[in-house]
Amino acid sequence: MIETVKIYAKRFSDRPDEAAKAKKDKYSLVYRQVEALVEGEDDTIANMSNIAALLHTTFGFWWTGFYIVRGDELVLGPFQGPVACSRIPFGRGVCGTSWQRKESIVVPDVEKFPGHIACSSQSRSEIVVPIFRGEEVIAVLDIDSRELNAFDDIDRESLEKIAKKVR
């Protein structure tokens, strides 16, 4: 009986590594698809549209899209999912804060993020990745999940790599 428990415990402890590898492999495939989608296409909106659709359908996120910098606010861009907030001020919510800090933000529980803007009550966790042109943020990639703690460093690193492909 003790041996069976040890074997079961080992299998269970191995699953996070297997899940992480599977996630990395999935992102690797998505990255190659993004490269093919943006090759030869110089329209930023077209590229954002295809990237949002690809990420959304591949991973089954609750909401996947872009907010584009327009003056002192972010304006809703291409997205997949339910209706969203149209405008977000600089420094407000997760998206505005990511823009202000010029860095990605992973939020395990949106209810605990100070100043979170609830575009959907079903969103439970979020990741926002800034899109740069040179040193300036031109947009953010925003992804929401209905699950708590849905995003990790694998998501952040992979999405930052994908974000560099937005032209």
Please explain how this structure is put together:
29% of the residues are buried. The longest helix has 37 residues, at 2-38. The chain is α+β, with helices and mostly antiparallel strands and 167 residues long. A six-stranded antiparallel beta sheet has the order 3-2-1-6-5-4, with helices on both faces. A hairpin with a 2-residue loop joins strand 1 (63-70) and strand 2 (73-80). It has four helices and six strands; from the N terminus they run ααβββαβββα. The protein has helices at 2-38, 44-59, 93-101, 153-163; strands spanning 63-70, 73-80, 87-89, 105-107, 125-133, 136-145. Helix content is 44%, strand content 25%. The protein has a single domain, classed as Beta-Lactamase (2-Layer Sandwich).
What is the overall silhouette? Answer: globular
- The total beta strand count reads 6
How far the N terminus sits from the C terminus, by CA atoms, comes to 58 Å
- What's the CATH class label? Alpha Beta
Number of helices: 4
Q: What is the name of the CATH topology?
A: Beta-Lactamase
Number of folding domains? 1
Q: Which homologous superfamily in CATH is the superfamily?
A: GAF domain
Please outline the major beta sheet.
Answer: 6 strands, antiparallel
Q: Spans with pLDDT under 50 lasting ≥5 residues?
A: 1-13
Largest beta sheet: strand ordering: 3-2-1-6-5-4
Mind telling me the C-alpha Rg? 17 Å
Oligomer state of the chains in this structure: single chain
Average pLDDT across residues? 90
**CATH hierarchy: architecture:** 2-Layer Sandwich
Strand content: 15-25%
The helix-strand sequence is HHEEEHEEEH
